[in-house]
Amino acid sequence: MSSPDPNYPPPSGGDPQGQPGYGGQPGYGSQPPQGYGAQPQGYGAQPPQGYGAQPQGYGAQPQSYGAQPQGYGSAGGYPAAPPGYGAPAGGGSMPFPVAVQTVLTKYADFTGRARRSEFWWFFLFGILVSVVAGIIDQLIGFPALQIIVGLGLLVPNLAVGARRLHDTGRSGWWQLLTLIPLVGIIVLIVWWATDGDRNPNRWGPSPKYQGAQY
Asked: Where along the chain is composition biased (Pro residues) (predicted)?
């Protein structure tokens, strides 16, 4: 009769010898091995840089989109009105210094046309010079300067008066109406204050509407 096996009975726990963890899975109840069941790297994360994004400039309006072309509807590049159409070509009344210089330059010129600002600015200039001359004559006690000024301004006054009448379509000889007391000068003042013809007449183009600077 053989002696009993020293390894018998089996160890406590009921698991056969040599089978560790019998009846249970290795690591049962613990987290799965590293990487097991985990999502691949980057899965569910944001797409790579630029993925699904609009290309650079996509959907953006091009430069100056919807803007009017340069010069469109503005003064630069917009078709200008022909000379004589709309506003005066001279861009306003003639300045005082320019009017005086123009009349003195055309000292005895009885041809051509003169606009209202040229005539009336020189008329004012004549009054101012006469006042200054009168003050000086009072100081010296003799009206010498007033006589010189009166004679010096007589010819340019007649010349610009004739050109002003030409601008309204009338002859410069109408200035002889000044020989008629009161009535003659009133009629001339009305004509001198009348705007000139827009179109050229027998004395030339309009200095206001035909593209002249003044």
From this structure: 1-13
